[in-house]
Amino acid sequence: MNFILRTTSLLWLLLLAALGSTTFASCGSDSQTQTAGQTATDSSEVTTVAGPQLLLDSMAFIKAFQAEPKFTAQLLPARRFYRERGFRLGWFKDHKPVERVKTLQDIIAKAGNEGLNPKDYQIKDISQMLAELEKVQSDSVRRNTLERQADIALTGTYMKWANDYYRGIANPHDKKDTSWMVKPNKIKLNKALFTFLGERKSRYNYYEFAPLHPEYDQLKQALATYRAQERAGGWPTLPATLNLKPGAASPAVAALRKRLLDSVGGADASTPAPAAAKLGAPAVAAPNAQVYDPELVQAVKLFQQDAGLKPTGIVSGETLKQLNVPIGSRIDQLILNMERWRWLPKKFEPDYLLVNIPEYTLHVIEADKEVFNMRVIVGKVLHETPVFSDKMEYVVLAPYWNVPFSIIANELRSKLVANPNYLDRLDMEVVKGYGRKATAVNPASVDWANVTQSTFKYTLRRRPGPKNDLGDVKFIFPNSNDIYLHDTPHDELFSQSNRSFSHGCVRVSEPIKLATYLLRNRPEWDQATILDTIAKHREKYITLKKKLPVYLVYFTAWADAAGHPHFRDDIYGLDKKLAREYFD
Q1: Phi and psi at residue 216, in whole multiples of 5°?
Q2: Do residues 574 and 417 touch, judged by C-beta distance below 8 A?
Q3: How many CB atoms lie within 10 A of CB 182?
Q4: Distance of CA 453 to the CA centre of its chain
Q5: What is the SS3 assignment for 235?
């Protein structure tokens, strides 16, 4: 009998021990600590933390997080953070705040450098909480209560800051905004916090809050320069009627000189003053301060290049308009484009194509470096080129152009009703089916007067050749927008500064160069073979050996490695839309 009692008692003790190790692990009594050697559940990534650690009550943590509106949105990653560490406190060791507490406070104090508002992250008075903790160290109950409250406040503050810094304040993916459909930055804030606290290693430098992209950091440098210029008084406004040519004299020259050569950092607060001297301009001021001298002409040409304008050196029209953009507007423009970099994937693939729509430029990137770029034509207003990403799969030589039904209805219907054979003049044909299986249809058999998009069961297409709207080459990355890159017979349009002329697709200025590059890993398709195939006017699809990522993005400002900024017009009004959300 005694043996049975002893055995039963032992079983009860073992059961209680097991329950204590599981049930009470998330409880918040003041006696709860975790000692050295106990690690978070993700033991492959999180190292041990020496010293006793208080534990949080999981339900109390949730209630505390939900009680602060600015923390609520980040409840999920915060829960994951604490759950992965067995609900140990993250910001205290041996009842003392870890060094990263001060780091976080310093970062928040400098939030303005990132185009963010420090007040948005001063949600809890962390300094006051830490000062109160120092006063109650001898009262373990009060100390432990405050320590838990401070830990939750620090985690909430970090999550709010890190979300805005890494993902953006106005991230379109959070609102399912279809105006920006580039694949998103999939940062895991709970993992980032482990890295920040030094408990996990990562390829991304979350430890020092380094930006994910160097392009962001370059814009940040430009922002600092422009704010210095703003503190120095900004720049003068030039007369709205100014029309200044090299060698001419005008009272406005002094203001122009101050605007470009005497500003902080040099021309336009971005082109260093010595840059003009490198172009052969004299290093001394002109004898007559009102003369538009060579040094100032060179500064204007540099400014025009940075604005995407022809470097004529003439100050009038669009050049004058860009010179008179207020410095506050330029600062906002830099901040908005820093925000857009937060929306992009944490890292691009080594090889990809990037079309910056406001820049009217295609950039070809290989092994993380630009190998060449070319001018492009993008969609005009009301036919905007969408912002999205996908993967290129095909190069099409001597392509057909399938005519959109909107063009049939709005431009061709009346002519085809009067004369169906009008299609011959346009080198067009009506076909049934697709690809090689397509068969010709007599255009006279179509009821052009009454046909609708739903009842038109055919394809109207223009044959390959010199009249084809797609030119000699088409580059396909299948997508729901039906957008692709292509050649054009209208090469004269590439000489324009503003190149928004298309119906949405992107026309490239050097299609043969691009096709040759994309097919460089297929020796049977060298440039001579490509040109011979095009000359036959027979459509030919060529599959790329490896799908190539394509990004169509919208940046109206960017900077080089020295923080030298470039600006473009907000052609689709997306800056205005973002500004209302970001700044308001």
Answers
A1: -65, -45
A2: no
A3: 20
A4: 36
A5: coil
**Which is nearest to 237 in space by CA: 256, 211, 262?**
256
Residue 164: which of 106, 202, 119, 201 has the closest Cα? 119
Tell me the C-alpha distance between 509 and 500, whole Å. Answer: 14
For 6, phi and psi rounded to 5 degrees? -60, -40
- Asked if 376 and 354 touch (Cβ cutoff 8 Å), the reply is no
CA distance 187 to 165: 11
Asked if residues 230 and 237 have their Cβ atoms less than 8 Å apart, the reply is no
Sheet holding 428-432, edge to edge: 401-402, 459-462, 428-432, 439-441
Give the list of residues 6+ apart from residue 4 with CB closer than 8 angstroms, or none: none
Which residue type sits at 320? L
Query: Beta partners for 557?
Result: 567
Tokens of 140: 């373990």
137-178 tens-digit pLDDT: 999 999 999 999 999 999 999 999 999 999 999 999 998 888
Strands (E), 450-539: 459-462, 473-476, 485-486, 500-502, 506-508
Q: Give the side-chain half-sphere CA count within 13 A for 364.
A: 16
Dump the DSSP string for 308-350: T------BSHHHHHHHTS-HHHHHHHHHHHHHHHHHS-SS--S
Q: What is the pLDDT of residues 346-401, one digit of tens each?
A: 999 999 999 999 999 999 999 999 999 999 999 999 899 999 999 999 999 999 99
pLDDT of residue 204: 81
Q: Distance between CA atoms of 315 and 524, rounded to whole angstroms?
A: 51
Instruction: Round to whole Å and give the CA distance between 544 and 413.
Output: 38
- Rounded to 5 degrees, φ, ψ at 172 are -65, -25
Q: Tens digits of per-residue pLDDT, 396-445?
A: 999 999 999 989 999 999 999 999 999 999 999 999 998 778 899 999 99
Polymer length in residues for the chain: 584
Exposure string (b/e) for 22-45, b if CB count within 10 Å is 16 or more? eeeebbbeeebebeeeebbebeee
pTM score = 0.86
Q: Are 364 and 353 in contact (CB under 8 A)?
A: yes
Residue type (1 letter), 42: D
pLDDT number for residue 451: 93
Query: Beta strands 565-567 and 557-559: pairing type?
Result: antiparallel
* E strand or H helix that includes residue 256: helix 253-260
Is 441 strand, coil or helix?
A: strand
Beta bridge partners, 14, equal none
CA distance 265 to 478: 45
